[in-house]
Amino acid sequence: MKSYRQVLHFQFPTRRGLENITRKVQQTIDESGVREGLVLVNAMNITASVFINDDESGLHNDYEVWLEKLAPEKPYSQYAHNGFEDNADAHLKRTIMGREVVVAITQGKLDFGTWEQIFYFEFDGKRDKRVLIKIIGE
Ligand code: ZN
Predict the structure, then answer these.
(1) Whole-number mean pLDDT of the chain?
(2) Distance (Å) from CA 111 to ligand 1 centroid
(3) Which fold has domain 2-137?
(4) DSSP H/E element including 80
(5) Domain boundaries of the chain, sorted by first residue
(6) Which end of the chain is less enclosed by CB atoms within 10 A, N or C?
């Protein structure tokens, strides 16, 4: 069995943002040489998520609106976590949207359902963040 590890770096200029990272994950699978196996993709920061859904801008806006209803960024004083930091909402949003995805690799390709794409979701940007890609298989 082979294993392969890669780290992606992100630095968003805004507090929140979404990036489709499907191509970067497939590129890493290509580099690994694994044809049959599994790929794990996880955010290495507790204020960012990796998730799978549709690459559709209306839906992405709906996420922003929905997450702001569930865990509004402001007022900062509403959260016990804030004080030294102001990112309690980012921790909560990350919990809702999840830490990682695992996708099957079949014949060297991401074995997706219809419309599935992998996204990085930043909730507390303007700093260096990392995503781990770990591939196992043969
Ligand atoms: Zn914090």
Answers:
(1) 98
(2) 35
(3) Jelly Rolls (2.60.120)
(4) none
(5) 2-137
(6) N
pTM of this prediction exceeds 0.90: yes
Nearest to 35, CA basis, from 107, 100, 84, 126: 107
What is the CB neighbour count within 10 angstroms for residue 131?
A: 24
Span 14-37, pLDDT tens digits: 999 999 999 999 999 999 999 999
By the 10 Å C-beta count (0-12 exposed, 13-18 middle, 19+ buried), 24 is classed as: middle
pLDDT at 52: 98
The Å distance, Cα 93 to ligand 1 centre, comes to 12
* Centre of ligand 1 from the C-alpha of residue 81, in Å: 7
Ligand 1 centroid, distance to 9 Cα (angstroms): 19
Look up residue 14 and give its two tokens. 């805004």
